[in-house]
């Protein structure tokens, strides 16, 4: 006669007590890490807001647009023309994206669709390593090679330091980011979609352009948003190759020296315009808040677009 099997209880299904305690400790550590990240972000935002409010008490918001005949950013004279640094960031960032998007996306398409597995295994790690190059190295490259040997001979030899040289340097810096994230998005497209396209007679180029890229558009847009945020937030290249040492007139032409938000922050904090109090110091927090809000706006728009066009397979 066979023995009657023991009846399982809810307590038996809970598992070993030591394992439950270990999982509880890990859950607590992960929750603590999440809470700390939120707290640190909140403290940073609080510090920026407090400093920005102090700055606006010294300099009214209406005075941040210089309507004189020679508008510009001159912190030591307490002339804070916000369009000067915003336009500089937009011009340099736009040039950087013109450089980074075609080269980065083209590299991603080659690695995902045309390169052999052996070539992909070699090139992909190299691209990811290039993403970690210090920006000061790229800034020196833009200052010593791009500006005098490329931009100067092609346009104006007397203005070798300008926003065009800085934008090209920033674009080179963010090509690996654009390429790596886009390649991951393209590789995630199911092979069955490609095979279905080939099955109806489509060529490789048509399959890539009409099937693979539209299917991976959400990931490509995410790569674009990351690259734009990186371009706007780049500091050393804009500071070294932009052509202005913390102050200067408003400029719109890429061939003129310009000043980005990050370059103005760098020079105000530790460059030629270093101060310890007053409006020239408090403007650090105001510019930091502007940069934070711009990045948050870009990410919000990108996330909404990605959620709208994302396809699940």
TrEMBL record:
Range of residues in the leader sequence: none
Pfam families to which the protein is assigned, alphabetical: BPD_transp_1
Gene3D superfamilies referenced in this protein's UniProt entry, alphabetically: MetI-like
Localization terms from the record: Membrane
Membrane topology: Multi-pass membrane protein
InterPro entries reported in the protein's UniProt record: MetI-like, MetI-like_sf, Phosphate_PstC
UniProt-recorded Gene Ontology molecular function terms: phosphate transmembrane transporter activity
UniProt GO cellular component terms: membrane
Record-annotated ABC transmembrane type-1 domain positions: 86-302
TM helices/strands, residue ranges: 28-49, 85-110, 122-143, 163-186, 207-232, 283-302
GO terms of biological process kind: phosphate ion transport
Keywords: Membrane, Transmembrane, Transmembrane helix
Primary location recorded for the protein, binned into one broad class: membrane
Entry coiled-coil feature ranges: none
PANTHER family in alphabetical order: PHOSPHATE TRANSPORT SYSTEM PERMEASE, PHOSPHATE TRANSPORT SYSTEM PERMEASE PROTEIN
Protein name: Unannotated protein
Organism: freshwater metagenome
Taxon lineage: unclassified sequences, metagenomes, ecological metagenomes
């Amino acid at each position: 006669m066979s023995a009657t099997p023991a009846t399982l209880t809810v307590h038996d299904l809970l598992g070993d007590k030591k394992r439950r305690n270990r999982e509880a400790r890990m859950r607590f550590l992960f929750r603590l890490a999440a809470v700390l990240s939120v707290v640190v972000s909140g403290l940073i935002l609080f510090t920026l807001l407090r400093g920005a409010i102090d700055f606006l008490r010294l300099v009214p918001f209406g005075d941040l647009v210089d309507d004189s005949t020679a508008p510009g950013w001159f912190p030591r004279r307490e002339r804070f023309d916000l369009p000067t640094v915003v336009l500089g960031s937009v011009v340099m960032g736009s040039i950087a994206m013109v450089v980074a998007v075609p080269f980065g996306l083209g590299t991603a398409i080659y690695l995902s669709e045309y390169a052999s597995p052996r070539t992909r295994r070699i090139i992909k790690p190299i691209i990811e390593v290039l993403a970690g190059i210090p920006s000061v190295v790229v800034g020196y490259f833009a200052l010593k090679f791009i500006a005098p040997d490329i931009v100067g001979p092609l346009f104006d030899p007397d203005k070798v330091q300008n926003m065009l040289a800085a934008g090209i340097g920033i674009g080179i810096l963010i090509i690996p980011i654009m390429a790596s994230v886009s390649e991951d998005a393209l590789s995630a497209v199911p092979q069955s979609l490609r095979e279905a396209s080939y099955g109806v007679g489509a060529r490789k180029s048509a399959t890539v352009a009409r099937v693979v890229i539209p299917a991976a558009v959400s990931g490509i847009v995410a790569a674009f948003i990351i690259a734009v945020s990186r371009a706007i937030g780049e500091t050393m290249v804009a500071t070294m190759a932009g052509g202005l040492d913390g102050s200067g007139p408003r400029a719109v032409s890429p061939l003129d020296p310009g000043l980005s938000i990050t370059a103005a922050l760098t020079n105000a904090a530790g460059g030629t315009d270093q101060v310890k109090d007053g409006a020239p110091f408090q403007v650090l927090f105001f510019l930091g808040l502007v940069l934070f809000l711009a990045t948050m706006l870009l990410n919000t728009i990108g996330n909404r677009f990605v959620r709208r066009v994302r396809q699940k397979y």
